[in-house]
Write a structure and sequence with these properties.
Elements: E1 6-8, H1 10-17, E2 22-25, H2 28-33, H3 38-52, E3 56-63, E4 66-69, H4 73-81, E5 86-88, H5 93-98, E6 103-105, H6 107-117, E7 121-123, H7 134-137, H8 142-149, E8 153-156, H9 165-174, E9 179-182, E10 201-203, H10 206-218, E11 225-228, H11 239-256, H12 263-274, H13 278-304
Parallel strand pairs: 1-4, 2-3, 2-7, 5-6, 7-8, 8-11, 9-10, 9-11
Antiparallel strand pairs: 3-4, 3-6
Helix pairs in contact: 3-4, 3-13, 6-8, 10-13, 11-12
Bound molecules: pseudouridine-5'-monophosphate and manganese (II) ion (MN).
Pseudouridine-5'-monophosphate (PSU) binds at residues 26, 28-29, 33, 89, 106-107, 125-128, 141-143, 160, 261, 264, 268.
Length: 306
């Protein structure tokens, strides 16, 4: 039955069958998170970083109504260029399939498709969360609910302050989702290494992290884990510069009445514009760093499951 929907490329399918390390990657970051052609360049480089660190990359998207796990360079180019690609979260998947559309998968839907394929590790830039002002707007990303139920570890650079970081952490706590700091006690804030918020657990090596994941899922404690890996020091942004940019972006989004799924892409593009592209460079570098950690984690996890 799954075969009717799921299309896993040969290399990825073989790796999964043989218990080799595989890392899932999302496509919203390509279609809606970064401008062309940097998006395509980044997506391809991320795949090569994963290979350099001993794992097989599996970029996920919906193409012509098929759930694709593992894309060709041409398919990645298409997602980066084509305007008609729908940002696809959990609620959207059935309709993208039924209408044979192209969908760029968010963290939530990438987790769903990765889990269907049997992939446990997923590397990206940032997760969605509880937005600032959510007590009025109710804008809470479906990523958080997904993390509470789907067994995939998500390596990210923490939560950026377009979100309410404190409320995002409270939500994750309620839902039983561990937030792990990779070599840090403090949750990173995406563009910067610090946020002022502590993580639940600090882990200093991929092996310990893999053991924790295995224990969680062996025991039937369903759901994901947020692995927060701080942006490398040399690419981190100045705290005041980025804080200002985000505050202005959030204000403009409010004034323009930007809502729903448009909110995150609007804020990302605004922040890039205000920082004259500096935020994009940081964004790209932190994704590279997360890809390397994801690959090494997948390697350790595959050793434990042998
Ligand atoms: N944060 C980023 N870049 C992104 C996203 C978040 O720094 O591209 C994307 C991810 O795909 C994430 C989605 O899952 O935005 C969240 O959107 P929403 O808030 O509408 O759920
Ligand atoms: Mn939202």
């Amino acid at each position: 039955m799954l075969k009717n929907y799921l299309d896993i490329n040969i290399e990825v399918e073989k790796a999964i069958k043989e218990g080799k390390p595989v890392v899932a990657l999302e496509s919203t970051i390509i279609s809606h998170g970064m401008p062309y052609p940097r998006n395509v360049e980044t997506a391809l480089k991320v795949e090569s970083i994963i290979r350099d660190n001993g794992a097989i990359p599996a970029t996920i998207a919906i193409l012509n109504g098929k759930l694709k796990v593992g894309l060709t360079a041409e398919e990645i180019e298409f997602l980066g260029k084509e305007k008609n690609v729908v940002k696809t979260s959990r609620r959207d998947i059935p309709f993208i399939i039924a209408n044979s559309l192209n969908g760029a998968t968010t963290v939530a839907s990438t987790m769903i498709i990765a889990a269907l394929a049997g992939i446990k590790v997923f590397a990206t830039g940032g997760i969605g969360g509880v937005h600032r002002g959510a007590t009025e707007t109710f804008d809470i990303s479906a990523d958080l609910e997904e993390l509470s139920m789907t067994d995939v570890a998500v390596i990210c650079a923490g939560a950026k302050s377009i979100l309410d970081i404190g409320l995002t952490l409270e939500y994750l706590e309620t839902k039983g989702v561990p937030v792990v700091g990779f070599k840090t006690d403090e949750l990173p804030a995406f563009y910067t290494r610090k946020s002022g918020f502590k993580v639940d657990y600090r882990v200093d090596c991929e092996e310990t992290l893999a053991k924790a994941l295995k224990a969680k899922w062996d025991l039937g404690l369903n759901g994901g884990v947020v692995v927060a890996n701080p942006i490398p020091e040399e690419y981190a942004m100045d705290f005041d510069t980025i804080t200002n940019a985000i505050n202005n972006a959030v204000k403009e989004a409010e004034e323009k009445g930007i809502k729903g799924k448009e909110s995150t892409p609007f804020l990302l593009a605004k922040v890039k514009e205000i920082t004259k592209g500096e935020s994009l460079e940081s964004n790209i570098q932190l994704v590279y760093s997360n890809a390397a950690v994801g690959a090494r984690l997948a390697v350790e996890l595959s050793k434990l499951n042998k």
